[in-house]
Design a protein that fits this description.
The chain is an alpha/beta fold. It folds into 2 domains: 160 residues, HUPs (Rossmann fold); 92 residues, 2-Layer Sandwich (Pantoate--beta-alanine Ligase, Chain: A,domain 2). 37% of the residues lie in helices and 19% in strands. A 5-stranded parallel β-sheet has the order 3-2-1-4-5, sandwiched between helices. Helix 7 links the parallel strand 4 and strand 5. The protein starts with a helix and ends with a strand. Bound molecules: pantoate (PAF). Pantoate (PAF) binds next to strand 1 and helix 6.
Length: 270
């Protein structure tokens, strides 16, 4: 990878992925193609960021298909290391994101953001990009990576890319592949709940607790959905606002199980 990197025109843009590519990834690759002179895509199904009872074994990565999508998107190189290459025996260092790694998704999935930060740091040092593209659907991951790049002085611009949704508002995710037809319809409740909070916000509701309770009520109206959390937080700190939300806005986040599939989504309120 380093040899290939030396031959590339700067700025080099990287799009890290787990595989299982969909139109959301295509949007990342497209943005990277526009922003960089050279584009590197990574395909690495990182086992360490999946909890014991999570979906690593059924994750829908298909190497040949994913390579084809990267190729059609015009990437200059694909970095697709093996698990042993990424985690050789004896490697022990990890990157600890600090408090942001322990709230919301981090509280539900202990160790997840440490594993994400560690693998992204390794992918950054393998690909040595100037720019790195991450989707806004994984808002907390984006913030963890942004802070890591800043705090560890990687000198990489972390570029957010807007969430891609289907015609019913469902945020695209590799995990949608697990849903039955009925569940896919039920999944529409996730974005609907966020839109309901946004409508209340537009109607000048400024109490996070009222907006969160609105999200909860909408999710509870769908029999196939179980809420993991609904939170309306300060997008800068990822902590609750200490009082009414200022007009500069907030970030509403939700995690929902539809059957055995866990989906996350978020929406800026401002
Ligand atoms: O969002 C993902 O696809 C993964 O968490 C990432 C950033 C590629 C790290 O494995």
């Amino acid at each position: 990878m380093h040899a290939a990197r030396l031959c590339m025109q700067s700025p080099v843009a990287v799009v890290p992925t787990l595989g299982g590519l969909h139109a959301g990834h295509k949007a990342l690759l497209h943005a990277a193609r526009k922003g960089g002179e050279s584009v590197v895509g990574t395909l690495f199904l990182n086992p360490k960021q999946f909890g014991e009872n999570e979906d690593l074994a059924r994750y829908p990565a298909d190497h040949e298909r994913d390579l084809g999508i990267m190729r059609s998107a015009g990437v200059d190189a694909v970095f697709a290391p093996s698990v042993d290459e990424m985690y050789p025996p004896g490697d022990a260092f990890t990157v600890n994101p600090g408090p942001i790694g322990d709230v919301l998704e981090g509280a539900q999935r202990p160790g997840h953001f440490r594993a994400v930060a560690t693998v992204v740091a390794k992918l950054f040092s393998a690909t040595r990009p100037d720019l790195a593209y991450f989707g806004q659907k994984d808002a907390q991951q984006l913030e963890v990576v942004r802070r890591m790049a800043h705090d560890l002085r990687f000198e990489i611009d972390v570029v957010p890319v807007e969430t891609v949704r289907d015609e019913n508002g469902v945020a695209l995710s590799s995990r949608l592949a697990y849903l039955s037809e009925n569940e896919r319809v039920a999944a529409e409740i996730v974005y609907a709940s966020l839109c309901s909070a946004r409508d209340r916000w537009t109607g000048r509701e400024r109490a996070a607790s009222a907006l969160e309770s609105d999200i909860r009520t909408v999710i509870q109206s769908e029999p196939l959905a179980t809420l993991d959390y609904a939170a309306v937080i300060d997008p800068e700190t990822f902590e609750p606002h200490g009082g009414p939300i200022p007009d500069t806005g907030a970030l509403a986040l939700v995690a929902v199980r539809i059957g055995t599939t866990r989906l996350i989504d978020n929406l800026r309120l401002n």
